Amino acid sequence: MRARPTRRPSRRALLLISIGVAATALIAACGTSGRALPDPAPGATAPPRKTTSSTVANQVTVGSDAAVLRPTGFSLTSLAWSKDGVIPADFGCRGANTSPPLTIIGVPSGTAELLLVATESAAPTAPRWIVAGIAPSTTGFEQGSVPAGAIEVVNSSGSAQWSGPCPDTATATFELRLYALSKASGLTAASGPAAIQPILATATQAAVLRGTSSN
Q1: CA–CA gap between residue 144 and residue 129 (Å, rounded)
Q2: Which among 17, 83, 118, 195 could disulfide-bond with 129, CB atoms 3.0 to 4.6 Å apart, if both were Cys?
């Protein structure tokens, strides 16, 4: 009895087998990167995973009064001194003690009123100048005056006017903070320093100008 001849695999079958073998090898290579990983040292821990984050163009921080401070955009500056610079004597108690010229830029949309509060580092809770009722369209203060319609409120010195730097220490920081309020403050000239604290809760942003003064 004759033995049947062995059938050879067809070309199609051989092609499918080759593709399957190649795919298996590729998957194995991807899983191991072609290298054997060494065993971890005793007590070793996995390194922290790297994370990516995007940088916000206008970074924000929160001040002690919860108003948002923006380093760019909403700003308060003065031609009289540079940021964190020395405040000229004319603006302090040892000079003419006149209020400085100020420039306002980038008032946030939706602002109902601007409120300006000036303090000295030695007594941050005792305002030296309070100006309320500033219109959101205001672009600045002229030296020695306040914008039309604005109200100077009685400050910690008992007067309703600018009371400039007068440090007891060798050097002190004087700060002017301009608040963007979401609703009208309702402050009057006789309101006094204590009245501004509840108002600050309606501030959405604040711009800050600082300077130093020496005795």
Answers
A1: 12
A2: 118
Residue 76 has phi, psi (to 5 degrees) of -130, 120
| Res 212 pLDDT > 90 | yes
Q: CA-CA distance, 85 to 173, in Å (whole number)?
A: 10
Q: How many domains is the chain built from?
A: 1
**Dihedral of CA 146/123/206/59: which sign?**
positive
Residue 33 lies in a domain: no
CA 201 to chain centre: 17
Provide the sign of the torsion angle of the four alpha carbons 207, 209, 210, 215, taken in this order.
Answer: negative
Residue 172 lies in a domain: yes
Tell me the C-alpha distance between 56 and 27, whole Å.
Answer: 40
| Domain containing residue 208 | 62-214
Name beta bridge partners: 120: 123, 174
Residue 101 within any structural domain of the chain: yes
CA quadruple 122, 125, 126, 132: dihedral positive or negative? Answer: positive
Structure confidence by residue, pLDDT tens digits, 164-190? 998 776 788 999 999 999 999 999 999
As beta bridge partners, residue 76 has: 104
CA–CA–CA angle 112, 139, 81 (5° rounding) = 125
Looking at residue 90, the DSSP 8-state letter turns out to be G
Q: What is the CATH number of the domain that holds 153?
A: 3.90.280.10
Asked whether residue 77 is domain-assigned, the answer is yes
